[in-house]
Design a protein that fits this description.
The chain is mainly α. The chain has one domain (2-251). It has eleven helices and no strands. Helix 1 (2-19) packs across helix 2, helix 1 (2-19) runs parallel beside helix 7 (149-165) and helix 4 (76-98) packs across helix 7. Residues 80-217 form the Fatty acid hydroxylase domain. It is a multi-pass membrane protein. Keywords: Lipid metabolism, Membrane, Oxidoreductase, Transmembrane, Transmembrane helix. InterPro entries: Fatty_acid_hydroxylase, Sterol_desaturase/TMEM195.
């Protein structure tokens, strides 16, 4: 049931991209290299990571954690909030770490996206997904929770919002929906500024704006940035396989 939300969101956003003339025009100019990066990223994030969570990470917790499986009894509302709010805060700091000088070389590929495009949501080098907290924290709570229904709904909603904020389906600033969502939810407009060419050191949040506002990294502007993406001289194999394929210092653009 929870996966239906993610799949339906992806299909709706793909449909919008195809039927929205500016988005369709940009999609037609996508390079072969970008198609490969985006396809591999979606495959890794959408298929490989869920399999690893259940087949590997969950089993590691099962064998090595001193706590018994299903020992945490919480109501559905509490487990939903645990996923949608608390894990969101952990992701905020996880994302900031990926922008640090220690991990930027692994994350920079995500910022080569030059147009907000739902297909580029999971663009990254192959190893970046192992550094994203979702792989480890979701399996951890699925192991501990006696009933994970509310938690999984939160996970699915977070994933759906991730697809949406990487798309061009922005809400008009004059609409009532924008006035309702804008004070608290990260919108496509907000995330576009995270991908702006001049700086990505803002709007790190996934679901909620409060974390950026609390830590001074929030930037508010309803107008889109002049340009998106960072320049890079990395080859396709470097973008996919770093650090197996080394990157020189001059290749790394922060």
């Amino acid at each position: 049931m929870e996966n239906i939300l993610i799949f339906a969101t992806f299909i709706v956003l793909i449909g919008f991209t195809i039927t929205h003339q500016p988005s369709w025009a940009k999609l037609q100019t996508k390079s072969r290299e970008d198609w490969i990066l985006d396809s591999v990223g979606l495959l890794v994030q959408g298929l490989l990571i869920p399999i690893l969570q259940i087949a590997v990470v969950y089993q590691l917790y099962r064998y090595f954690l001193p706590l018994p499986q299903g020992c945490l009894h919480l109501p559905h509302v509490a487990t939903f909030l645990l996923s949608f709010i608390w894990v969101d805060y952990l992701y905020y700091w996880n994302h900031r770490c990926l922008h640090s000088r220690w991990f930027w070389s692994l994350h920079q590929v995500h910022h080569t996206v030059t147009d907000m495009d739902v297909l580029g949501t999971s663009r990254n080098c192959l190893w970046t997904s192992f550094l994203i907290i979702y792989l480890w924290i979701h399996a951890f709570f699925l192991y501990l929770l006696n009933d994970s229904t509310g938690y999984l709904i939160g996970v699915s909603l977070t994933a759906a919002l991730d697809l949406w904020r990487h798309s061009q389906l922005a809400i008009a600033p004059q609409s009532w929906l924008f006035r309702f969502l804008s004070p608290w939810l990260i919108l496509p407009q907000d995330h576009a500024w995270h991908h702006a060419s001049d700086s990505g050191s803002r709007n790190y949040g996934a679901n909620l704006k409060i974390w950026d506002k609390l830590h001074g990294t929030y930037y508010n502007c309803d107008a889109p940035p002049a340009s998106l993406g960072i320049p890079t001289t990395l080859t396709l194999t470097q973008k996919l396989l770093y650090p197996v394929i080394p990157i020189s210092f001059n290749d790394v653009t922060d």
